[in-house]
Specification:
The protein has about 290 residues and is mostly helical. The protein is built from twelve helices and six strands.
Length: about 290
């Protein structure tokens, strides 16, 4: 839902700015040109951030409507097997994969001209999620209007086929980007079945960027009622305390690391409870009790 909220928020801002720009200058491309992805390499070098911004940007109402419906429906299925961090990481990776294939195609294929081609939309990111969950659980049944029950593998095959035959249409760049996102989804699905998560590195990069803008907590000790002073950073009880409480101290010592909890939950979904180590089981138990 956070991804959907971000996309809707950006859409509203772009449309409002477009209306104001149109009333003032007769053009709606003022802000749009700074978020859409250019196929031209010289222009891309001047706007490298568009590799990320384009996948959160829409200008057409039907465009964002269908992309967000796909993201909501298939994202909910994805979340039955994976974590929110993996969903967010795959969304970004899928968008990057779509951008790379789009730029490569428009600069290498003679039939395509990169000079005046631009792209925006979350389609490549959404296609990565669709294909990933279809590869991981190909026989998962969903109900489609007028069709009824159908396996995810047939949804994925149909989606690939539609994009392939649509390449010669009016939205060439869009269909090419879809294929880039699908390749990333295929990569994720095959890798996760072997126990490897390709989103871990991109999530680490996102964490590093987010941490820059987060206010660092002050390093000081706190004292639970009737217990030892507890140092949040070191995770150890202070020696200056004169009273102790084993239960309070035990709870306090569990510094709930969201990253670690997500990793354990991901392992739990992939391999089952028996695959967890004793220490991981204890961490999960204490985390759930504290929450």
């Amino acid at each position: 839902m956070r991804l959907i909220y971000i996309n809707i928020g950006v859409f509203v801002v772009l449309r409002l700015v477009g209306v104001l720009s149109f009333l003032g200058t007769g053009s709606t491309s003022g802000l749009l040109q700074w978020v859409e992805l250019p196929a031209s390499l010289p222009l891309l070098l001047r706007r490298p951030w568009t590799v990320i911004t384009y996948m959160f940007s829409h200008y057409g109402l039907l465009h964002i409507l269908f992309n967000m419906l796909w993201l909501y429906w298939l994202g909910r299925i994805f979340m039955e097997f994976f974590t929110p961090r993996q969903l967010g990481g795959l969304y970004v990776l899928g968008g990057i994969g779509g951008a790379v294939l789009y730029i490569v195609a428009y600069n290498l294929l003679p039939a395509l001209d990169s000079t005046h081609s631009f792209m925006l939309g979350a389609s490549a990111s959404v296609m990565a999620i669709v294909i990933a969950v279809a590869v991981y659980r190909p026989d998962y049944q969903i109900n489609l209007l007028f069709i009824g029950g159908i396996s995810l593998k047939w949804v994925a095959i149909g989606t690939v086929f539609i994009d392939l035959i649509g390449i010669e249409g009016t939205n060439v760049g869009g269909h090419i980007a879809h294929m880039g996102g699908m390749l990333v989804g295929l990569w994720f699905g095959m890798a996760i079945r072997r126990g490897h998560d390709i989103t871990s590195w991109i999530n680490s990069c996102i964490d590093a960027v987010v941490s820059i803008f987060k206010k660092q907590p002050s390093h000081k000790a706190w004292r639970p009622a009737g217990g030892k002073a507890f140092d949040k950073e070191s995770g150890k009880a202070s020696k200056q305390s004169t009273t102790s409480s084993s239960e309070a101290g035990g709870k306090a010592s569990w510094n709930l690391d969201e990253q670690r909890l997500d990793d354990i939950l991901g392992k739990l979904k992939r391999s089952g409870y028996g695959a967890l180590s004793d220490e991981e089981k204890e961490f999960l138990f204490n985390a759930s009790r504290k929450r």
